[in-house]
Amino acid sequence: MFAVHLLAFHFTKLKEDQITKVDRFLHQLRLSDDVLQDVAARFQAEMLKGLARDTNPTAAVKMLPSFVRSLPDGSEKGEFLAVDLGGSQLRAHQVRVSDDGKQSSQLESKFYPTPKEVTQGNGAELFDYIADCLSDFMDTRNLKQKKLPLGFTFSFPCKQTKLDEGVLLEWTKHFRVRGVQGTDVVSSLHRALQKHQDIDVDVLALVNDTVGTMMTCGYDDPRCEVGLIIGTGTNACYMEEMRHISLVEGDEGRMCINTEWGAFGDDGALDDLRTEFDRELDLGSLNPGKQLFEKMISSLYLGELVRLILLKMTKEGLLFNGKVSAALLTKGKIEMKHVSAMEKYKEGLSNTREILTELKLFPSEEDCVAVQHVCTIVSFRSANLCAAALAAILTRLRDNKKLLRMRTTVGIDGGLYKTHPSQKCLWGETPHTHSPKCLWGETPHTQAAKSVCGVKHCDSLEYGLKREAQGQATVKMLPTYVCGMPDGTEKGKFLALDLGGTNFRVLLVKIKSGRRRSVQMYNKIFAIPLEIMQGTGEELFDHIVQCIADFLDYMGIKGARLPLGFTFSFPCRQTSIDKGTLVGWTKGFKATDCEGEDVVDMLREAIRRRNEFDLDIVAVVNDTVGTMMTCGYEDPNCEIGLIAGTVVAKWPLREGSTYVEYEKMTSGMYLGEIVREILIDLTKQGLLFRGHISESLRKRGIFETKFLSQIESTCEDSIIVKEVCAAVSTRAARLCGAGLAAVVEKRRQNRGVERLQITVGVDGTLYKLHPHFSRILQETVKELAPQCDVTFMLSEDGSGKGAALITAVAKRLKNQNNN
Ligand code: BG6
Ligand code: GLC
Q1: CA-CA distance, 28 to 127, in Å (whole number)?
Q2: Which of 8, 335, 551, 641 minimizes the number of CB atoms within 10 Å of its CB?
Q3: pTM above the 0.70 mark?
Q4: How crowded is residue 137: how many other Cβ atoms within 10 Å of its Cβ?
Q5: Which residues does the UniProt record annotate as the domain Hexokinase C-terminal (predicted)?
């Protein structure tokens, strides 16, 4: 046993030493949050430059109009062919889109190689080859007798003036075919196809792969408005407002813009971030000085970048005893597939040894650890940069829509994204925080927590539901009097209040029914100062009414007596939908004279006191219920609402009340404090900070949850602190998952079914922003409730909207009853 520990210690030490060595050598490749924010800002400026007619000619990022104006609306049908050139392989597809209500699209595909003779030969040969492949595909699919329309995915920068025409501006990636630049590729393909007498295809559209990806995803998800490729090359497209595209006539609607972001930096805009390795790689490439952003990101280049780094480290005596092999000196010997294999979670180190041995480098244990870390740093930078540019696009989309927060979908494809062990995680934070990062790390499961928590929670649920237990039950199981879900007929204008999350918000929600069914929201966030949160009840409600008055003024609707839904995210005992007695404050609220009172009455009284406007308070709801309703509006299977939120831990904790104990172990507000307590403890035991407890560590609330999320995602921070954070948040996610598992399992048993398909509407910053919380939560539910197929539906700011929907449903049901 002792030997095992010694070995483990030795390995940890060895790992740390190697990691420090590589970190020091590659410090220029480690990009901080600030730098990434700056990259995003620079890319925003580049987009503007590319979009405007007068600056476009000199812009590096070309922002090419695609002449695709709308996303598929599901009414498309028929049979199509597609040929796809520019990724790692040439692909031919048969696409059948059926309009049978299920919106299904079937795909048959065949892949063809693109050898060097094709990618670096002459134009006529290239287009003949594509036509030959297509003819072969039609042969194998028995399609030769049919006349079919063809879509041509051509993944290179093309200047289009219409959908079926595109002049190649420049070859990129591994293509350099003579005689094509400056010509229309659609007519070249058309000419080559005409040589095949036995087939009859009509080239209808030319699209970039990013646009194709966005359209494909848009077919399933109408919210998709960005297409992204991270493969051999990298690029993104998005839907831009026509009024901002001065290169195309017309101001109405939107058009998809192919950004060609691979060329970001070609004018020197990223020179300060490019390293000697980037410069060397560029000089040895097919297109020096071009596609500089792409060369830091995409799979065609990352292997070579790793090779150049290893070569320099070896020459400096930092690796392989200073001995360079012929293979290490050879361009292209390390490919992306090797980098991915070396970074694999479990087999990574043995893969590294194998790959280095094949390169005749005779690696030691230390060498393997160091090389693996080099790969990690190169991939991290790739994912970070990609996410920074994506954040810029998302910010632009959000600004275009004049929204404070935005819910959107990004369609994504490409070998690097799909197969690299950690590329995917870059999504964790991007859309919300604009400080994108790549995060990884697996946390092992604890079997014990699983069984104990699951069962215990289930018992508590049963107990809480019993009438005689309501007084003592710790899990209160409070009835909400929300009895109906939205059925799509709700309409009108509603006000909503959302109190109890990170922010206090007042919202105006406009609901449309019928074919133009939609929910539009306008909202304003108001601060609630600490002295009000902990002052008297009257002061708190007067402040709330003051905020409402301000909002009504701001929206110009003071005269209208609108129905109001009040999201009040504290435990309330309800006797009807518009009556809720506060059981007890949680989350830092402590206003006096509220516990035991009906909060709707308190709000009505405050409105009366102000005597400036009147409102029809229809419903009081918890944020979980609001979230469930919002998701239920989209997905009728949604029967559960969950909040895993963060309230910044700057308020003193409330001690000694039983009903918040579970929350203290799971919600964002408390996790930072738990971490601080543990760090103090470890320091007292001499295990951290040389036993010295600093003044700031003594201060309550120094660890905000967002800080906790960041610590888990950076390598520089002490391994111990990182471990503590990981342990605390994993426990929170596991406990939350156990509770949820009990709830879904109960639904399954109540329904008496073998398997249950159920959707959980979920919201809260901890769920949305923490790098691992959502994954661990979902895995726990899967483990503990194996007979339930649970879909998690993220509801952005849903509880305000939900309160309005509940109000709308309540109004509808009331009208029905009256009738
Ligand atoms: C494919 C798309 O899935 O991904 C192509 O169909 C795209 O259009 C390609 O070019 C990009 O990935 P890779 O790794 O093949 O370059
Ligand atoms: C290159 C091409 C671009 C393509 C991308 C991904 O950047 O120039 O058109 O979308 O690679 O394949």
Answers
A1: 43
A2: 8
A3: no
A4: 21
A5: 226-423, 662-809
pLDDT at residue 733, as a whole number: 82
State pLDDT tens for residues 278-290: 999 999 999 999 9
Tell whether ligand 1 has an atom less than 6 A from the beta carbon of residue 231. yes
Q: What is the mean pLDDT of the chain?
A: 81
Q: H or E stretch including 499?
A: strand 492-499
Phi, psi of 594 (to 5 degrees): -110, -35
Q: How many residues does the chain have?
A: 819
The answer for residues whose C-beta is within 8 angstroms of residue 797's C-beta and 6 or more apart is 405, 498, 505, 521, 523, 763
What confidence category does residue 620 fall into, taking pLDDT thresholds of 50, 70 and 90?
confident
Residues 6+ apart with CB under 8 A from 16: 719
Per the rule left: phi > 0, alpha: psi between -120 and 50, beta: everything else, 447 is alpha
Task: Give tens-digit pLDDT for 716-765.
Answer: 445 677 777 777 778 778 888 888 888 888 888 888 888 988 888 887 77
**Closest of 108, 110, 112 to residue 95, by C-alpha:** 108
CA 88–ligand 1 middle distance (angstroms) = 6
Contact 72, 215 (CB under 8 A): yes
Render pLDDT for 452-490 as a digit per residue (tens, 0 to 9). 223 333 344 455 555 555 455 656 666 656 656 666 676
Report which protein residue has its CA nearest ligand 2's atom 3: 156
Pocket test residue of 173, 295, 412 for ligand 2, highest count of atoms within 8 A of CB? 173
Cross-strand partners of 536: 592
Name the β-bridge partners of 79. 96
Q: Give the separation between CA 389 and CA 210, rounded to whole angstroms.
A: 15
